[in-house]
Amino acid sequence: MSFRAVLTFVLFLTGGAVVSLAQALGPSTSPRELAADLARHGVPGGIVVMNSEFGDVSSLSARRAPADALRSLDGGVSARVNQFNAVGSQYHATAGDGFVHVRSVREPDDLRQVLERNVQVDESAGLSARDAVFMRVVKALSGKEPQAIIGTGAFPGSECPLDRPVHVPAGWTSVTRMLDDIVKQVPGLVWLVTYDIDAPNYGLEVGLVCGGGAAVRITVFP
Amino acid sequence: MNKSNWTTYRIACILWAPMLIVCAGTLHAQGMSFSVYMDTTPGESSLYMVTSVADNSWGCSHGGYMTTARLTSPSGRTVASQSSGLQASTSLDYNDEYGDYSVATDGSYQCSCIFGGTAGFGGSQTTFVQRPTSLNMYKTDALTGTPTGCSVPARYWNFRDYQVMDQQTPPQAILKVMSMKETFTTPTNTCQVSFVAGDQPTGSSGQFRDQFFMCGPVPVCDGGGSCQTVRSQTWKADGNQVGQYTITYTCSGVTINP
Fold this sequence. Notes:
- The complex is a heterodimer.
- Chain A is an alpha+beta fold.
- Chain A has helices at about 5, 30-40, 60-70, 75-85, 110-115, 130-140, 175-185; strands at about 45-50, 90-95, 100-105, 120, 125-130, 150-155, 165-170, 170-175, 190-195, 205-210, 215-220.
- In chain A, strands 2-3-1-9-10-11 form a six-stranded mixed β-sheet, sandwiched between helices. In chain A, strands 4-8 form a two-stranded antiparallel ribbon.
- In chain A, helix 6 (about 130-140) packs antiparallel against helix 7 (about 175-185).
- Mean pLDDT of chain A is about 80; it is low at about 1-25 and about 60-70.
- Chain B is mostly beta strands.
- Residues about 1-25 of chain B have low confidence and may be disordered.
- At the A-B interface, helix 1, helix 3, helix 6, strand 6 and strand 11 of A face strand 1, strand 2, strand 5, strand 7 and strand 10 of B.
- Strand 6 of chain A pairs antiparallel with strand 12 (about 205-215) of chain B, so a sheet runs across the interface.
């Protein structure tokens, strides 16, 4: 009998984990996970992805959310962005002017132009972050604010700061600048644009992502 | 960390092996004892394992630790990761395999009480990985007020509370946080409404609330007419389809089937 065999002792103890599970996790590849990460750490920004690419947020990320709320990103924003870009090639993340943006590399040019072209906001308004997106941004994209709404789904609770007030100034701007300006005023939110390449008007939706990975969206065109 | 998912358990075994203690003059001065903590967490698409070993031995000096964490799927797919020291971690994609996974740790170390020798530690156990398979609606009711997504009170506002269930017979509740994602098709929309959707992970008990509401001015309804908007809804939990429903909205209320 070898020494090794004789000296094998096993003692399992009931108790806690000794090292963090986070060590076992690789960098997330989902734009939604990155958006949730940014929201969790209070970094303003937004993502433009196909509806089908707006993936799940992992259980583990969701579980980490409360403890990590609004702390600085380990290693900095640039490191996190570089980490995200290194993992996958379907999306590209950029960091600049205090914002992080993630866009699908397959985003149609005309959709990008719609999001970047100058639009006029008629009047200044103070309203909730949710209404700023659901009303003003939708109007900037479609020409009119939504009237009747049907809602379905598992909506986030008060832990998601959708009701926090923001100011939307009058003047010329772009949709992405409007969205940036809204989330900049509410740490803990990241904006979201999803599209379906085969749908009329790209099946455009705009919304907000919270730190726990929860999201709310509205269709731009009924 | 969800304690219900921990797969650690206790077996205490302290072995006295005086015949192997070659450098000791007395029988009571040495003892070998290792604590192996194995923590598995079922993620969205992978099983994660972290193992940490505590060397509680006395009388001899130890060093040169190597620790290996090993996961094996029900079909025998195995992944192992070895690290120097007393910690190791690894993960194994489900690849659509759920059920009993083997979780194992083994390691080696140099012991001053063994002339030129290496000793080892190790152990294994099984952890059951649940597949999100169905939804159990355990409560439904109506609400009043202004839901998220509306700036005015709702015409009507209903909800269903669901529990995510696993693949067993009978199905068992999955008690962990899961990501939830819903997708829709809308074959009929004579109400001419915009759609607001929300999705968020379940709570730590695997439960979530699905809400259904209509708000704002609907011209056809306000004029005394009728309309119908039909949506087909599909729910996925951690990427697994768990429910499909047909939701019919009218001016006066909503029905959900099944």
